[in-house]
UniProtKB/TrEMBL annotation:
This is Acyl-CoA oxidase. Its cofactor is FAD. GO terms for cellular component: peroxisome. Residues 162-252 form the Acyl-CoA oxidase/dehydrogenase middle domain. GO terms for molecular function: acyl-CoA dehydrogenase activity; flavin adenine dinucleotide binding. Keywords: FAD, Flavoprotein, Oxidoreductase. Pfam families: Acyl-CoA_dh_1, Acyl-CoA_dh_M, Acyl-CoA_dh_N. It comes from the Eukaryota. Residues 52-154 form the Acyl-CoA dehydrogenase/oxidase N-terminal domain. InterPro entries: ACX4-like, Acyl-CoA_DH_CS, Acyl-CoA_Oxase/DH_mid-dom, Acyl-CoA_Oxase/DH_mid-dom_sf, AcylCo_DH-like_C, AcylCo_DH/oxidase_C, AcylCoA_DH/ox_N, AcylCoA_DH/ox_N_sf.
Amino acid sequence: MSSLRLNLICRHLGQNTTDQFSKSNLKTPYVQDPIDFLHLDELLPADLNNKRKQLRAALEANIAPHVSEWYDKAQFPAGLAEKLRPLNIFGITEEKYGCRKVCPLEKSLAIYELARIDASLATFYALTLSLVAFTIEKLGSEEQKAKYLPKLCNLDIIASWGLTEPDYGSDASSLETTATPVKGGYILNGVKRWLGNAIISDIMIIFARNTVTQNIEGFIMDSKAKGVSVTNINRKLALRIVQNGNVFMKDVFIPENERLEKGHTFATGANVVLEHSRMNLSWMVAGLIAGTYEHAVKYIRERTQFRAPLAAFQLNQEKLVRILAIYQAVFLMSWRTTMLLVKGQGNVAQASLVKGWCSYMGREATRLGREVMGGNGIIIDNYAMKALVDMEVVYTYEGTYDVNALVAGRAATGVAAFKAGYKA
């Protein structure tokens, strides 16, 4: 806007241009936390809600002050595991192998609170528990569980999970990485892409096609094994704290006892894990929207333009209320899906519908948060733009919106529509 036009507007409003960036002194009560609007925390068991509040306080004190720097530098700091360990949020589905039990709702609320601070933190947590630890707990041998689960839950080791390849993302069951049976084990060859934690991992779960049976099986691979090389995926615009990488395997020997004992097909192995993990992702969306709302409402109450707080403008209120409404819907859908899972009534179609729709609407919510902050919304410290680009990843990973829609559509219609009738 030109200075002449700005002066004309300010003169019309009876405002001096020097007042333009003054700060509001609003003292009126307002909804600071979107969970309070419909008292949604009353849906949570008292003990878990108290844990959630304790986790929030610890994250605000010990993690949040550093996130902008980590995000700006795109680094996973060496001491982050030490900061996360005392939070006591890591565990498995039952108290065993020296690990604490973390029920589905507790894990979901941890993802929610972590995402409210930063989606990379939530992704690291979900990767560690919902993908790696769950894979070993569900598909591993007793020896593998006793060996790896305590170290994972105590963050003594960091792990990656490898299914996606350069040429196969949504069509993961067509992967080309091979596992050739040899005396005493298997030889792995292939390339994996987008593995979170790749360059900082100690172990990797790798899914490969058995060259004899043609089935897709899982293996626990030492990240430093001979024949393994990793390159970081740099210049990412989202989830910048997560260290994603490419993993190259050239004649990597995997001992027989590091092959996952169960789930020797895609349907009974990798897909079981993906279905489990997908149940939690809408909570990440809820956390991102919560963080966006909190920053946005604080900003428009404090920021003054034309001698009035931005919160006094109708358009800003409408946009903020849209964020607030989307939050209520996302939280309720996430909560209901988790409750169905606890009751043993959850299924992949429900998880896909909720993850797909929530992340779709999450894009609008974070965009609106950036919008009401104006130019300042693009600054990392103001959260909204960071949440917006991170939401783009959540919208895409562990099943794109389109794939999740088709999973839900198959359940709704009884007809699978994944593959077109096109023939080359």
